[in-house]
Amino acid sequence: MMKKLLSLLCLSLSIGAFAQNTVTVQVDNGNQPHSGVAVFLYENPMARTTGPITNTDLFTQVEYTSGNGIASFTTSSDTAFYGTFDCSGNFYQGFHIFAPASQAMDTLVYTTCVPNDCSAIIRTGQTATGLGIEATALRDINWTNLPGSDHRFDVNGTSYQGTTSSANSSSVMVPNSALPASGPVTIFYTRTDSLCSAVWDSLWYNGGGSGLSCNASFFVDSVNTAAFQGQLILQENSTTSSGSIVSYVWDMGDGNLYNTQYPIHTYAATAASYNICLTITAVDGADTCRSTFCLPVQFDSTGAPVLKNGFTVNVIDPATFSLDDPLLESISLYPNPSKGEARLTWDATLNVDQVSVFTINGQQMLNLTPNNNEVMISSLPTGVYMVRIQTENAVTSQRLIVE
């Protein structure tokens, strides 16, 4: 029942407004409602891998069922993923796709008993200053026999009073000074000391964060989108500091997910925008890193990029647009990150025709025609950009960060 939160890093770029959708979940045994049980909503794609919810600790909202077994959520996502636990720790889940924006009434049924009064789910997150711990009750105190809402944590033998955000939730931040530089951490949580047995969890603490870092990333290739006749071309360029990326999960924003690095997906119709998200998982033998990057793809009245009903998204490897030209390796972009001005250089024998700078949304910011083997890139606002270098026979790109 208790899950360890290996990484809480989620990079999400969001522009534009999304419709507010309401989902109402009824929990019952087929005949009678289950009252006062926690129902969790999962709006973070990191909670899912190939579709079903696998990381139950990555919930973004929690509500408790009323006397008629109903819990309601409001979300800006176009798909609602939700779930609840029974008394044995089994997780029951469902989802609803909103098309168009609407209200939904769904039902979760389990014939076993509801969680006991003291049940809770614990999740943790390592930071540079210590270990954050949060406990969320699986039963609403208004439906239990507990006399109060006292929350206590015992972490490696030291007792902490929890900071209570509600009668059903509490958290504590344990500083690095109270934790091992690297080693096991045991957590005991009690909702009310006099009546509840402790709920426990354990994890391996590594001194404030994983030594492994990773970055999910992709961008709209506006140049090749025009050449692919109705397809939106995305270039995937995620990175990891060490080890290897072992999982790619694409959420196309319409309820479809792919667990391959370079999927091709055709939409049934064109909406005002689709929020496309990529989640990667990297491992190096000791640590695990997860990162999510989201990019809303929007369309203007002129159809730029040109997308019609039934358009296709094609995620490609950037290397497929570059010939095997060793001179491309001579390209250098520095300093990066830049404080406002960066120099792009290359071997004098490499004939660069054009240098273009795009935002990660595909908006062209600069178009430079070099007259030697370098160009200066300046006058860009703070942000992340893709610098495209085009020769007679090849195209390659580099990322530029302007601070």
Automatic annotation (TrEMBL):
Residues 1-19 form the signal peptide. The keyword Heme does not apply. Keywords: Signal. Pfam families: PKD_4 (PF18911), Por_Secre_tail (PF18962). PROSITE patterns: PKD. Gene3D superfamilies: Immunoglobulins. Residues 238-271 form the PKD domain. NCBIfam families: Por_Secre_tail. This is T9SS type A sorting domain-containing protein.
